[in-house]
Amino acid sequence: MAKIKLTKTELKAQTDALKRFQRFLPMLQLKKQQLQGEIAGISAKADEVAARERAEREALQSWVGLLATDEALVAGLVTVKSVKTGSANIAGVAIPTFEAIETEVKEIDAWQTPAWVDDAVAAATRVMSLQCERAVYDEQRRLVQQELQTTSQRVNLFEKVKIPECREAIRVIKIALGDEQTAAVTRGKIAKSRVPEGVAA
To answer: What is the bridge-based pairing of β-strands 93-105 and 78-90?
Structure first.
């Protein structure tokens, strides 16, 4: 703890600081709880998207034989051109939100390719869309966890450092001021006892 002045002015400053810390601490604790809840919610959504992606991949297993027969045809058939995202705010944290993907499909001759290629394109697009959506949830979680870490550090700073320091400073100043007052009273009594009788105090 930094050296403090043992004065009434410092006592007021420390008392005001303590009130300020005690007023902000519940807000920080509430924000911490809110962020923890948001992380749990984001994780649940990411898990749900991952489960849908797994289901899509399992459905693609029936295509594997067909895809393997014509690897040159399907290689680079669908690629993600761009990911369209929006933005939202969670407890003061700006996060991206998934909207859609824009894909690029390799130009193919409809007359020269098997009919199943269109279905393969649609299935691959769905898998890619789910992968991109999951990546956006991962980024949301990273940003919210970062804010949670900062908020937790502030909560700890207030709880374990600032508030105890203020309380200790107030205690020390009150003792010093009390001692000073007692010493002043004692000096006054001694001074009064030294005044000769018959002389007005």
So the answer is: antiparallel
DSSP symbol at 63? G
3-state secondary structure 82-110: EEEEEEEEECCEEEEEEEEEEEEECCCCC
Tokens 């018959």 correspond to what residue?
A: 198
DSSP 161: I
* Residue pointed to by tokens 């390799």: 106
Architecture per CATH, domain 8-183, reads as Orthogonal Bundle (1.10)
Average pLDDT of the segment spanning 30-48:
96
- In the block, residue with structure tokens 């859609």: 100
The answer to whether 31 touches 151, Cβ cutoff 8 Å, is yes
CA distance 2 to 154: 19
The whole-model pTM stands at 0.77
Least confident of 43-57, 151-165, 185-199: 185-199
Report pLDDT digits (tens) over 19-37.
999 999 999 999 999 999 9
